[in-house]
Predict the 3D structure of the following.
Amino acid sequence: MKLRKAKFSRSKAMELAPEFVDPIAVPRHVAIIMDGNGRWARARGLPRIAGHKQGAEAVRSTVRACSDLGISYLTIYAFSSENWKRPATEVDDLMGLLRLYIRRELVSLRGEGVRIQFIGDRSRLDIEINRLISESEENTKDNRGLIFTVALNYGGRQEILEAARVFAQNVRDGKLNPEDMNEQLFESYLQSNDMPDPDLLIRTSGEQRLSNFLLWQSAYTEFLFTSTLWPDFKREHLEQAVYEYQRRERRYGGSGN
Ligand code: IPE
Ligand code: IPE
Ligand code: MG
């Protein structure tokens, strides 16, 4: 796949973040575990929904910042398969916010050339959300800018199990043989099959775990953990993360330089 060139010149990059030195070597795919909304609200004596609302603002600005930096893919973890364990009121609040976000953002994302898509199990999401998801995917499918993927009711293990199930079915139907299986074929069964693996995965709020996000895809991803809470995450945090990423040496099992 072709690497999109950063939109800004070197001098513009320096202006954005003095230490951000290489606008060409930006990660192609950034994944984010947006965590800490609840703690952000609690620290202010506010209900958790207030943190989620502010978190939605951080999503807006991060999408724009990724486009400006010339990142090709942004994937965010919005709701995990395990988040249904939360109180029904919080789940309802999150779904309500999601509906609001899609309705409000769709027009601008469309105008900005962003292509939005969703991964995760849609069967448990309500009809209205399913409709909004399909509509936003359809309305932005020809956009050629940032590919913005929202992981909703997503679980890495569930995604892998589903891939195994469909492959087994294909074998049973006589379409494939067990020995046909290899990494490339397996990836074709994953929902992320049209994206490269994430180069950089950022998790906010100080937690250092994957929480069932992109398990297969993050085999060689660079992880960056920051104590910043998601609602406080700004363009400069993203730039800082990209800067740090550019200082890492990716070895993929080789001996390095
Ligand atoms: C992340 O913030 C948002 C979602 C998981 C939907 P949290 O709601 O997990 O915030 P904390 O971890 O309780 O602070
Ligand atoms: C991971 O955050 C899921 C999302 C950000 C959507 P959680 O807050 O749910 O993760 P745990 O429970 O702390 O591992
Ligand atoms: Mg959390």
